[in-house]
Design goal:
By secondary structure, the protein is of the alpha+beta class. Helices cover 53% and strands 13% of the residues. A 3-stranded antiparallel beta sheet has the order 1-3-2. Helix 2 crosses helix 3. The longest helix is centred in the last third of the chain and has 14 residues. The radius of gyration is 12 Å and the shape is globular. It starts with a helix and ends with a helix.
């Protein structure tokens, strides 16, 4: 995805979510998937994340990147 499209998507998609989300918010953003599936996406490397202590944090831009890749692959 080009930088311009990424910036546009960032401004349009998920405006009610913070820049860095937790696993529960990630699952909501992806249509209500269960947390187990959310963790599978993270640990498979499909969505980049980091941890703070024992808490998983996911930058919103990585969720948008995942959605653009999934869309282009029709996953």
């Amino acid at each position: 995805m080009s930088i311009l499209k990424t910036n546009e998507a960032y401004q349009i998609l998920f405006p009610d979510y913070p820049d860095v989300v937790n696993i529960k918010q990630l699952c909501e953003m992806l249509g209500g998937i269960c947390e187990k599936t959310g963790y599978r996406l993270l640990h498979s490397g499909k969505i980049k994340f980091f941890t703070v202590g024992r808490c998983v944090r996911i930058p919103k831009i990585h969720v948008i990147d995942y959605l653009s890749v999934a869309e282009s692959q029709n996953v």
